[in-house]
Specification:
Elements: H1 2-31, H2 37-45, H3 52-72, H4 78-111, H5 118-155
Helix pairs in contact: 1-3, 1-5, 3-4, 4-5
């Protein structure tokens, strides 16, 4: 069971990270392609669904799964435990970054009136783009720590 929970964490973390890559490579280029009209198109596209809903469902699943992984593997070696704790801390940091950095910029980009705010929106777009690559790098680091912990677990002969 504990490996299954770890695999759930790795899969959800990988999914979240790949979505951030997609956001940077596809969505951002669409949003920033011809401001203000590209923002208006994006706002219309997101009128019926908020993409943050995906993150608000999957990110907590990942956070709970990695926390359970830390608890379930607690009696494993200190190196295994340290890797899973590292993942937990990184994923918590990504959550905080999303709440305190990205959501305010999302509101500027997708909800603030265009008139009189065009430069603020453009600035928020570029800040969003830069930090999304940071968020992606953090996601990759968290996945690395989880995979390293899993690798160490499989290297212990009595756990195979």
């Amino acid at each position: 069971m504990k490996k299954a929970i770890l695999f759930i964490s790795i899969i959800t973390a990988a999914g979240l990270t790949m979505v951030t890559v997609y956001n940077s490579l596809v969505d951002f280029k669409s949003w920033s392609g011809d401001v203000p009209s590209s923002i208006l198109v994006a706002r219309e596209y997101y009128r019926h669904i908020d993409p943050r809903n995906f993150f608000s469902v999957i990110a907590p699943i990942n956070q709970i799964a990695i926390l359970l992984t830390v608890i379930l593997f607690w009696r494993s070696s200190v190196h295994i435990r340290a890797n899973f704790i590292g993942s937990f801390i990184i994923y918590a940091g990504i959550g905080a970054l999303t709440i305190f950095y990205f959501i305010p910029r999302d509101i500027i980009i997708f909800a603030r009136p265009m008139e009189g705010n065009l430069e603020v929106i453009k600035t928020a777009l570029h800040q969003w783009q830069y930090m999304n690559w940071v968020r992606t790098a953090l996601g990759l680091a968290g996945i690395f720590f989880s995979l390293k912990g899993l690798d160490l677990y499989y290297k212990i002969p009595h756990n195979s």
